Amino acid sequence: MSFPLLTATAALPAVGAIATAAVPAAQRTAAKWLALLFSLATLALAATVAVRFDPGGDRYQLTESHAWIKDFGVRYELGVDGIGVALVALTALLIPFIILAGWHDADPLETGSKRWRPTQGFFALILAVEAMVILSFEATDVFLFYIFFEAMLIPMYFLIGGFGDRAHEHGEQAAATQRSYAAVKFLLYNLVGGLIMLAAVIGLYVVAGNFSLAEIAQARANGTLDMATNTERWLFLGFFFAFAVKAPLWPLHTWLPNAMQESTAPVAVLITAVVDKVGTFAMLRFCLQLFPEASKWATPVILVLAVISIIYGALLAVGQRDIKRLVAYASISHFGFIILGIFAMTSQGQSGATLYMVNHGISTAALMLVAGFLISRRGSRLIADYGGVQKVAPVLAGTFLIGGLATLSLPGLAPFVSEFLVLVGAFARYPAIGIIATFGIVLAALYTLVLYQRTMTGPVKPEVSAMPDLRVRELVVVAPLVVLLIFLGVYPKPVTDIVNPAVKQTLSDVHKKDPRPEVEAAK
Amino acid sequence: MSTAAVHSLWTTAADPISKIDAPKIEYGQLSPTLIVVGAAIIGVLVEAFVPRKARYYAQMFVSVVALAAAFAAVVALAADGYGTTKARIAAMGAIAVDGPALFLQGTILLAALVGLFTFAERRLDPEAHGRPVDSFAAQAASVPGSDSEKAAVRAGFTTTEVFPLLLFAVAGMLVFPAANDLLTLFVALEVFSLPLYLLCALARRKRLMSQEAAVKYFLLGAFASAFTLFGIALLYGYAGSVSYATIAHVVDGTVADVDPALADTMGNDALLLIGTAMLVMGLLFKVGAVPFHMWTPDVYQGAPTPVTGFMAAATKVAAFGALLRVLYVILPGLRWDWRPVMWGVAIVTMLGGAIVAITQTDIKRLLAYSSIAHAGFILAGVIATTPDGVSSVLFYLAAYSFVTIGAFAVVTLVRDAGGEATHLSKWAGLGRRSPLVAAVFAVFLLAFAGIPLTSGFAGKFAVFKAAAEGGAAPLVVVGVISSAIAAFFYIRVIVLMFFSEPRPEGPTVAVPSPLTMTAIGVGVAVTLVLGVAPQYFLDLAGQAGVFVR
């Protein structure tokens, strides 16, 4: 038996979580280094996965399969396709930065404060989330995926509710109340989504008799598994609902701004750049593969919802006074683009959507982490409290600008490629939708540039006049992300090469071919 | 006088006697119950003859040995094949020895053993007058607040009678799911109910509330028993027999020989339907299903917490076992009549339990309503009427009972000056004062909520899967919705424990003896093992899924 590489990528952070939690309370710094070490080792393993993966080979590679719960028809089955590889790599890449950026986020507060923040717990929970997210990207058994899809809510919930910003404009008590409100809202939304999916998972078992993605997809393809149209639609809706809450799609998005606003910046990045990707990923992998006909049936409605997400998220981002809420609404807008790309059912659209998941992860991480550094300096999340920062902290302002430009998809930065692909894919089949979605880009320029202008330019406010520039640790976090944004913006081929074959296969599952170019059709 | 005449005298005298066969009792197959009953009687003798100082240890010894021995007997019977191939009806048709019976008996015995440890805990309260005290009243007969009570406390009395009472209740519970005729069922019902009524009244603290709980439980329980008995009488009138098998045959219409004395009533469907309704009503009362659930919150709250934990776990196991046997053995032919009713009961039980639980402010009442909601989930599995349905219910019961005992054991630890601090507001910030206890309780709550990787999820998945396969998809949807509602209040407790500021005058967590630690440890271990690797136990429940007829 070969080395179970995929299990190892998930097991390593899990072991790291336990080890970090077990470090004695006094050895705070040791726990941090341990967590960082484990996350870097996971990154190395994920890189190995990416190298060992052969884009031209089988659909699912590095597969593992073991019996698990026979009575439920559940097997422990792992395997990655190109999309999975890209997202596993993204997750493993971002976690070390998240840990580094949150280095002091869980330090005990100065004496006199009653807030309680177990440092070890913070880093252990981050690693636990990483383990579960990676497993859900790798699971090719629906039940196995479901288990980690649900279970990751618990550590996430404690991260949101247990660790907030250092300061809050209305005092500590108000902050605690709002934090726990945000955490509960996050959990309830996702739990309800998950439970509805549970009903659909059970329904799938009743119809199919097992949970193996490959087996079900094959049985569907060669006609041995016949699903009644209505059954398929109900099951699709059950799955899609859970993923749309997670992703999040309008109108199920309202938990995200609360959760991102109340959590620390690294945790906010963890939510939007890592955990939420499970939702969009699962749409590609499970909704389209298991229920191709129902996916096509639901496409018009989903596209409309996606476009509403794009425009609505962008409009609300323009109106925000709170930096973190602004990034949250911008993310909702971006998730709209990703879902649009997936359900445009063209190869450009879906390649773009996958690429978008990766790029959005990196660009949001860059923007949000720098915003976190900014907020921790001033102790306020309100845009109005800043002004003229670029004069006192030019490096901070510069990286913030790059993160912002990436968010508005400036050509030359990575998100441009993916957004362009998504729009091309959407135009090819649904021109009207594509046109409306394009307005999202215009609004994105508005909210990022206005944000930059209000916080960084203008006269230096007295409160920010003594603001220090980025420290070494913070530079170590930001610089690689900026480099990646530029690199992937100029040369996205490494990612697209891995992703494209998987997208082709997914499209063939739904029996969709790319529409021919108009000119050719006219001949 | 000839010898022949003497002989004939002998034979005439002996003749009628030889016609009445001595009942043939398979002592070996009934040994689990017999061991427990025997130990309970020894326990009574211990109360009478052993000096007061030594009673606690003597009773502990007898009870632990008896429960362990009875469990060993169950395992031996199961290993011998009585659960599957050699399943049979013993004791002249009164008791079934088959897979479900043995599985449930094993579960009840283990739950009782763990529950016993919480009964025997004597380190939580500060010592009174130099003697350790447990959760039970010093002298049950003394009026609360009276001089005689004070005298009893000063003398350091303890109510060691709880051990034989527990054993008697266990004995009744062992027979209840195995009963194969209606009279045995009723006797078993009374045998386990009466000790429980008494146990409920024995709390050391808040004695009036405890006695009130006992009176409520007794009155409503007596009502329910009366219903059951009336139902049994009607069914006898319908079938001319109290044996499950015979009634089933009459329901199916395969019995022709009408008892002349009952010629007018036999086969009368009105008797069958009303009788069934009343019998099932009595069982649903014990299960705590809506609308027969009214006693649950009051009794759970008032009873001494170790008793609550034991009762919540073991009674539910026994009662669901009996309900399964009644529905699957007597009434499969009546399936189309009882299924719609049970659908309704399951739906209102799931939703009712979950919704009312949201408004609760007392942790014990909260867990009571949660147990009602869980009864609804289990009913969804009962309704499946497939072998999968039976085994999923068995698995759920096993998983649920250990979570319940563990959760109530944690409740006994959180105390302030007035004893257990059960009001939810007092639990605020518990996670900060004692992270370990709060984390353990959070694990139990997550299991109740059915979060993956806990036993609660595996159980819930099993019953919902069985229900969906049995054609009850709408029940699954309702179950999922009420799970979501239920998740809200479990999460609320977690929020309270971890994210709220502790109160300055808040409760402290008592350091328990190894007894309660064992109970909680077993609860956590079972919760995680059944959540991560349930296959072995699903197999076990799967093999035990067939009733002998």
pLDDT below 50 for ≥5 consecutive residues: which ranges of chain A?
A: none
Order of helices and strands of chain A: HHEEHHHHHHHHHHHHHHHHHHH
Annotation, overall tally of beta strands of chain A: 2
Mean pLDDT of chain A: 84
Q: Outline the biggest β-sheet of chain B.
A: 3 strands, antiparallel
List keywords for this structure.
heterodimer; A: two-stranded antiparallel ribbon; 2 strands; B: 549 residues; mainly alpha; three-stranded antiparallel beta sheet; 21 helices; disordered N terminus
Kindly describe this structure.
The complex is a heterodimer of chains A (523) and B (549). Chain A has helices spanning 5-22, 28-52, 82-101, 119-138, 142-151, 153-162, 171-208, 213-221, 229-246, 255-262, 265-290, 292-318, 323-343, 347-378, 389-392, 394-407, 414-429, 431-456, 472-490, 493-509, 518-522, and strands spanning 61-69, 74-80. In chain A, strands 1-2 form a two-stranded antiparallel sheet. In chain A, helix 5 packs antiparallel against helix 7 (171-208). Helices cover 73% and strands 3% of the residues of chain A. Chain A has one domain (5-516). Chain A has 523 residues and is mostly helical. The termini of chain A are far apart. In chain B, 59% of the residues are buried. Chain B has 21 helices and five strands. Chain B starts with a helix and ends in a 6-residue tail after the last helix. In chain B, the strands form two sheets. In chain B, strands 4-3-5 form a three-stranded antiparallel sheet. Chain B has a two-stranded antiparallel ribbon with strand order 1-2. In chain B, helix 4 runs parallel beside helix 15 (387-413) and helix 12 packs parallel to helix 14 (363-383). Chain B has one domain (24-543). Chain B is mainly α and 549 residues long. Chain B has helices at residues 3-19, 31-49, 52-79, 99-119, 147-154, 162-175, 182-200, 207-239, 244-252, 269-287, 295-302, 305-330, 335-358, 363-383, 387-413, 430-433, 435-449, 455-469, 473-499, 514-532, 535-543; strands spanning 88-90, 95-97, 414-416, 419-420, 508-509. Classes of the chains: A mainly alpha (523), B mainly alpha (549). The interface between A and B is large, with 38 and 35 residues. Chain B: It holds the Pfam family Proton_antipo_M. Chain B: Belongs to the complex I subunit 2 family. Chain B: It comes from Streptomyces actuosus. Chain B: Residues 179-485 form the NADH:quinone oxidoreductase/Mrp antiporter transmembrane domain. Chain B: It is a multi-pass membrane protein.
